[in-house]
Design a protein that fits this description.
five-stranded mixed sheet, 8 helices, eight-stranded antiparallel sheet, elongated
Length: 303
């Protein structure tokens, strides 16, 4: 693989611990920063470096290990985000392994073709901050909770790896693919992952009208003759996760379709999001998603 500038975006409950993890690895460990290209100012020694990342009054603090900030750098945001930039990288898989071992919740590993994609005006969108999805994204522990369900990560047009430590890795393209093939592979996955991700500062747009069962904390929505859009389903998952109304906390959302054909038309997408799918059969409500067991249909490059 040709050397490229790798960018890694990290988010976790303790972002300074993530900075510390990066500082323990090449190409940062034991190297002096370039003070002219950093926000940290002069320090006594390398052991003082992490402390200087805590910079009250600044939204972000950056350190660069190369002149003019054009090479190795780490940026720490006050909202628990960290961005590392590593020039001349040839082993992104090694960095992926390292990231999975860090105390992250979410991470995005950049693509070797990031610059070419940007030059072609392609922006992938991302899980947090202003960072884009690239070659791979990582969900660890509580980071899974922002996905509409773990099923979503198994069924997308990407390669899925489950790892020890409650880690899920999603690869959007073959790391060895050329720029055009990589974009063709990654574009559907970049779009699909965001359709099932509840972003930070998420705004719920749909009003979910239904019958609330206080004992089961279930919202029952009857739908006849109208399609349930992907945007509405994402809002439903956000209501289930965020619980914006403390007086009616919702753990389960059931869509009830009086016409079975309409229920089955929605079954797969509802099941992917762990939203219940019901219909009326012979005067009785029948749940369809309990017995639904589809097989992922992966694109050719994954197979």
């Amino acid at each position: 693989m040709k050397p490229f500038r790798l960018q890694i975006a990290l988010k976790g409950a303790d972002s300074l611990t993530l900075v510390a993890s990066l500082l323990e690895r090449p190409p940062f460990v034991g190297q002096p920063i370039d003070e002219r290209s950093s926000d940290l100012g002069a320090g006594d020694d390398a052991s003082d470096l992490l402390r200087r990342f805590v910079n009250p009054g600044r939204e972000r603090t950056s350190a660069s290990w190369d002149e003019f900030g054009l090479g190795r750098s780490i940026t720490h945001w006050t909202d628990d985000e960290v961005l590392a930039s590593i020039p001349n990288e040839t082993n992104p898989s090694g960095w992926l392994d390292a990231v999975c071992a860090m105390p992250i919740e979410l991470a995005m590993i950049g693509s070797p073709h990031r610059r070419a994609w940007r030059n072609a005006d392609y922006r992938a969108g991302g899980l947090f901050g202003l960072h884009d999805n690239g070659w791979a994204s990582v969900f660890k522990g509580a980071g899974h909770e922002r996905v509409v369900s773990r099923r979503w990560l198994d069924f997308g047009p990407w390669r899925t790896h489950r790892r020890d430590g409650d880690v899920t890795v999603v690869e959007f393209h073959d790391i060895e693919a050329n720029v055009d093939d990589a974009l063709a592979q990654a574009r559907p996955g970049h779009q699909r992952i965001m359709e099932g991700f509840i972003r930070f500062n998420y705004i719920i747009k749909h009003e979910l009208d239904g019958l609330y069962n206080d004992e089961k904390r279930r919202l029952r929505i009857v739908r006849a003759g109208a399609q349930v859009t992907s945007d509405e389903m994402l809002d439903a998952c956000a209501v289930r996760y965020l619980k914006p109304d403390p007086s009616t906390p919702i753990d389960h959302i059931a869509y009830v379709f009086p016409i079975e054909d309409e229920a089955r038309a929605h079954l797969h997408e509802l099941w992917l999001r762990e939203l219940e799918c019901w219909t009326i059969r012979d005067g009785n409500e029948v749940r369809l998603d309990d017995d639904y067991n589809p097989t992922p249909d992966k694109p050719a490059w994954v197979r």
